[in-house]
Design brief:
The complex is a heterodimer of chains A (about 525) and B (about 500).
Chain A lengths: L1 H25 L5 H25 L9 E9 L4 E7 L3 H19 L9 H20 L3 H10 L1 H11 L4 H29 L14 H7 L6 H18 L8 H8 L2 H26 L1 H28 L3 H21 L3 H32 L10 H4 L1 H14 L6 H12 L9 H29 L6 H4 L9 H19 L2 H16 L3
Helix pairs in contact in A: 1-2, 1-4, 2-3, 2-4, 3-4, 3-11, 3-14, 3-20, 4-5, 4-6, 4-11, 5-7, 6-7, 7-9, 7-10, 9-11, 9-12, 10-13, 11-12, 11-13, 11-14, 12-13, 12-18, 13-14, 13-17, 13-18, 14-16, 14-17, 14-20, 14-21, 16-18, 17-18, 17-20
Chain B lengths: L1 H6 L13 H20 L4 H25 L3 E3 L4 E3 L1 H27 L4 H20 L3 H19 L6 H32 L4 H9 L5 H18 L8 H8 L2 H26 L4 H23 L5 H17 L9 H36 L10 H4 L1 H15 L6 H13 L4 H29 L19 H19 L2 H7 L10
Antiparallel strand pairs in B: 1-2
Helix pairs in contact in B: 2-3, 2-5, 3-4, 3-5, 4-5, 4-11, 4-14, 4-19, 5-6, 5-11, 6-7, 6-11, 7-8, 7-9, 7-10, 8-11, 9-11, 9-12, 10-11, 10-13, 11-13, 11-14, 12-13, 12-18, 13-14, 14-16, 14-17, 14-19, 14-20, 16-18, 16-19, 17-18
Classes of the chains: A mainly alpha (about 525), B mainly alpha (about 500).
């Protein structure tokens, strides 16, 4: 069993959803039930394989890549098929593997307009392959391909099943991310050509991320590193999204169907921050050092701007989207400190944001289904009409604003704390200023979330919805798809060590190499 | 005087029959088609298409045996060379020709056009391309060019009773002849400056200090401009949109893929064998042409409402991507290898994805009788298979992984960055920016197909799926499989296109 997992585990967990999608293509569209079962089955199989991998994972050695696969792929450019799992990849892979089946379950009976569950689920499974692949790929070109694989399905998910303004939102999403990744690819190529072996001084000409992390930019001048880092900064920064590249996000989220928003918020955004942690920072330490204060600056601007944006929103979904900008700002602030403490906090923040904001988007979708609107000023009294849902919304808002004891706290608080003592060579005063600003951001976060809660959940139901039959409490399908996330929010809030213990050795190892 | 000419004994060159076997096979099938026409007359119509496609595939056999043999061959005093590069390009031409015949079969038969002659023209044009791949001499290149161009002029105007087709053919003909004249003039200058038509001799002469710089420069410019028309590089692209739109669609597919590739093959041979040593002359020229083609093609494509015209402009931009590596090709031998491989890779992948796009256009036009982008609205609703296929081809053209086009663009950028010069990096950034511009119009078509409802006022059926004829379906399967395979396992194409041309000159 262990041998099998070692050789095939990661390949299977990545490609099982894709195989499921291919099988679904062969099934006629009229067989809706069978298609849904197939989709659920393939995502569950992937989850089980992922679970086995996690059970078998050597946690004592979480800093090292495990289950490494290294096979020939594109020899002409010296790119190989390398997969591996370490403490940084593991939580994010697990997040993906859990969220996708939940999305399948949630969509079981509500495929958004204009229907066509076959295409909808096929796209979702292709997305899963792309996302899992990105988190386990250990070759830059393989990483790039997986990173891009998610673009098309997401584009179509927004474009076909989205809201009114979906054409604009989908193309904007597509263009922004492609622009970023085109520049990112140039940076990858620069790394390929310029990285040298510190021992011999020869050009390495490799895309192997293990090697590139090991040499950590040796042989590349600091000034060149700044340029290469800039390319990656735009590539990953668009995906995160960092201020000022964030403008695609509110549009995409507002227009996307519910599960599209959930996947986008819970996982796709993490591809960007993961790229920073895995590629940009360790491979270009000097570039990172030069950029860190600016990343920190943009991060805190994002925190404040996102929070202010939230306060100005009239649409619940758009508000949650802007809150993503703010929360990802905390994650980026943690990364910008370039300390193991900050990056650990960032990874925790990614997972926590994935669970909590994913959950909030689920809620927004359910609200929309019941009230047929997300306009905050028309909502109200959810605690009266659908008390359980109202309480869940309250719970998630508390988690999102960083209440201690819930998962959100461990994403934000350590990130702020880490800015107190950034890595050596970074301007301490600047980062401490960022710390203060970010702390103000948490107050604003409490403000907009509580205000949202007050306006939507509390008070008496509005007249127009008072007698509506559509407004029912949480349904069984919703319970099934939400329960794991709610449990996760509490579990990771009470026992943050579950994640920190896994990520820490890997982060320390990543930062220690080369430098 | 006359006596001396007459006494000049004609020395028959030693011909390597194996090396020219693909050309002879094609020629044989062309002759066979003529015979079928003469003997069977109308009855022959049933078999000509099959015979032509069989001929193209049969010509692949000697290409494969030559590849198996592996040795580089040179015949006709070195004017005709069969090496890996030539073989890969021959294979691309033959297979592209085969797909074009598949696309043409129903179109030509149902249109009641001159079928037999049409396939003879196709074979003749492919013959010209196959010769072009091996030509290493100015005269041979020119003969090959005319051999492929003249049938192409005729094919463009094949729908004789259609005004637009006539316009297409006439425009193509006039611009083509003009380009040929420019090209010939450039060749004559090169011959005058170097005293030889052999590319290797020209390289030796222009690389040294002996050759007059002004004449060489002019010669190179004229030659490149001449082929600039052929590959529809900006600003020599003006014939392309009108010709593409007016010509029968299978012919357009042929022009946009095979004919363009043939122009590139000639350019590659010229640059890498003929004037590789004169990087100072051709590099800036290629840089400007490439950048102008990318921006020009993509920006003009943004406003098109007809899919064929859009693909014409996107073809201009694609030509720009392929010209780009030539702008750094002279930096070093290693860069030259990278640059050559990248263009050959691009040509092979481009053939698959562009032919695929045209296959969908042909299939859809059978229902809608139009290539207006508006006619593609809602295609996903009533014909999901074709919509998915078209999406795959368009996104491949845009370069989205894991579809074939990404690797083509990747190789181009790799070649541009490999010498590490500022000009190379700048062009790499231009390629990146243009990929994003191009994505806009490709994605717009995709969202027409997927998002919109079928047009209500349509005078065609928007409820039942479009069922393409068998041969078009076959073309779709071939090109679709190739597009996907090249993207997921690029080694398959990369292995073959990893070719080399430049031979370091002694001294």
């Amino acid at each position: 069993m262990t041998d099998f997992l070692n050789d095939w585990g990661l390949t299977l967990v990545t490609f099982v959803p894709l195989i499921g999608a291919l099988v679904m293509m062969a099934v006629p569209a009229a067989e809706e039930k069978m298609l849904k079962q197939l989709a659920l089955l393939s995502s569950l199989v992937a989850m089980v394989i992922g679970g086995l991998l996690m059970l078998d994972f050597d946690y004592g050695n979480a800093g090292a890549l495990q289950y490494v696969v290294d096979a020939r792929w594109i020899e002409v450019i010296n790119s190989r098929y390398i997969l591996g799992l370490d403490g940084i990849s593991l939580p994010l892979m697990a997040l993906t593997l859990v969220v996708v089946p939940l999305c399948v379950i949630y969509s079981w009976d509500h495929i958004p307009e204009p229907g066509n569950p076959k295409a909808f689920f096929i796209l979702m499974l292709i997305l899963e392959t792309g996302m899992v692949g990105t988190f386990v790929a250990q070759d830059l070109i393989l990483f790039f391909v997986f990173f891009e694989v998610v673009l098309l399905p997401m584009f179509f998910m927004i474009a076909v099943w989205g809201g009114e303004n979906r054409r604009y939102a989908s193309i904007k999403f597509f263009l922004f991310t492609l622009f970023g990744s085109a520049l990112m690819l140039l940076s990858f190529l620069a790394l390929f050509f310029l990285s040298t072996d510190p021992a011999t001084g020869e050009s390495l000409r490799t895309f192997d991320m293990r090697v590139l992390t090991e040499v950590a930019g040796a042989g590349i001048l600091g000034s060149t590193q700044i340029w290469i880092f800039a390319g990656m900064f735009i590539g990953f920064g668009v995906k995160v999204p960092m201020f000022p590249f964030h403008t695609w996000l509110p549009d995409a989220h507002t227009e996307a169907p519910t599960v599209g928003s959930v996947i986008l918020a819970a996982i796709l955004l993490k591809l960007g921050t993961y790229g920073f942690v895995r590629i940009a920072v360790p491979m270009l330490p000097e570039g990172a050092e030069s950029w860190a204060p600016w990343i920190g600056l943009l991060a805190v601007i994002g925190i404040i701007y996102g929070a202010l944006g939230c306060l100005a929103q009239t649409d619940m979904k758009r508000l949650i989207a802007f809150s993503s900008v703010a929360h990802m700002g905390f994650v980026m602030l943690g990364i910008a400190t370039l300390t193991d403490f900050g990056i650990n906090a960032a990874i925790f923040g990614m997972v926590a944001h994935g669970i909590i904001t994913g959950m909030l988007f689920f809620l927004a979708g359910s609200v929309k289904e019941r009230y047929h609107t997300l306009e905050i000023r028309r909502l109200g009294g959810m605690l009266v009409q659908a008390p359980r849902m109202g309480w869940i919304l309250g719970f998630c808002s508390m988690a999102s604003l960083g209440l201690p004891g819930l998962a959100g706290f461990w994403g934000e608080f350590p990130a702020i704390l880490s800015a107190y003592s950034p890595a050596e060579g970074l301007p301490v005063e600047t980062f401490r200023t960022y710390m203060v600003v970010a702390a103000v951001g948490t107050v604003l976060a409490a403000g907009y979330l509580l205000w949202l809660l007050q306006r939507t959940a509390m008070g008496a139901p509005r007249e127009e919805f008072a007698d509506s039959d559509d407004i029912v409490d949480v349904t069984r399908l919703e319970w099934i798809s939400w329960a794991p996330l709610l449990v996760g929010i509490i579990l990771f809030g009470v026992a943050p060590g579950l994640i920190f213990d896994v990520t820490d050795p890997a982060v320390v190892g990543l930062l220690a190499s080369g430098g | 005087m006359l006596g001396s000419v007459l006494t000049l004994a004609f020395e028959r060159p030693a011909i390597d029959w194996h090396a020219v076997a693909p050309e002879l096979t094609l020629l044989g099938f062309g002759a066979l088609l003529t015979l079928v026409d003469i003997v069977w007359l109308e009855r022959g119509r049933a078999v000509v298409s099959a015979l032509a496609s069989f001929g193209l595939l049969a010509s692949m056999v000697p290409v494969l045996t030559l590849a198996w043999d592996g040795a580089d061959r040179s015949t006709f005093w070195g004017a005709y060379v069969v090496d890996d590069y030539a073989l890969v390009m021959k294979a691309v031409f033959l297979l592209a020709g085969y797909v074009v015949v598949l696309l043409s079969t129903n179109y030509i038969a149902e249109g009641d056009y001159w079928e037999n002659e049409y396939y003879q023209m196709v074979l003749s044009a492919v013959l010209g391309m196959v010769v072009m791949a091996s030509a290493r001499d100015l005269v041979t290149i020119f003969v090959a060019l005319e051999l492929l161009s003249i049938p192409a002029y005729l094919m463009a105007t094949w729908r004789k009773r259609d005004l637009r087709s006539n316009e297409a053919g006439l425009k193509y003909y006039l611009m083509g002849v003009f380009a040929s004249a420019v090209l010939l003039y450039g060749m004559s200058l090169l011959y005058g400056a170097t005293g030889s038509t052999m590319l290797t001799d020209i390289d030796a002469a222009v690389s040294g200090d002996g050759a007059p710089l002004a004449v060489v420069t002019l010669g190179v410019i004229f030659v490149v401009v001449g082929f600039g028309f052929k590959v529809s590089a900006f600003p020599f692209h003006t014939w392309a949109p009108d010709t593409y739109e007016g010509a029968p669609t299978p012919v357009t597919a042929f022009l946009s893929v095979a004919s363009k590739a043939a122009g590139f093959v000639a350019l590659l041979s010229l640059v890498f064998v003929g004037f590789w040593g004169r990087a100072d002359v051709y590099q800036p020229l290629m840089w400007v042409l490439a950048a102008a083609s990318m921006f020009g093609g993509n920006l003009m494509a943004l406003r098109q409402t007809n899919l064929v015209r859009l693909l014409a402009y996107s073809g201009v931009a694609q030509a720009g991507y392929m010209l780009a590596p030539l702008a750094v090709a002279g930096e070093s031998l290693a860069t030259a290898d990278d640059a050559l491989s990248s263009v050959v890779t691009y040509l092979a992948i481009y053939a698959a994805m562009n032919l695929g796009a045209f296959a969908v256009i042909i299939a859809v036009a059978r229902r809608t009788a139009s290539a207006e982008i508006d006619c593609y609205k809602g295609l996903f609703r009533y014909s999901p298979g074709l919509a998915v296929a078209m999406t795959i081809f368009l996104m491949a053209l845009a370069g989205i992984p894991p579809l074939g086009g990404w690797f083509a663009k990747f190789e181009i950028v790799l070649a541009l960055l490999s010498p590490g010069t500022a000009w190379g990096v700048a062009l790499g950034v231009i390629v990146a920016v243009n990929s994003v511009i191009a994505l806009y119009y490709y994605a717009r078509i995709a969202s027409h197909m997927w998002v919109e409802a079928p047009p209500e006022s349509a005078d065609f059926d928007t409820t039942t799926p479009i069922k393409p004829p068998t041969s078009v379906s076959a073309a779709l399967v071939i090109t679709g499989a190739a597009t996907l395979a090249f993207g997921i396992l690029p080694q398959w194409v990369g292995h073959f296109t990893d070719v080399t041309l430049v031979v370091a000159l002694p001294g």
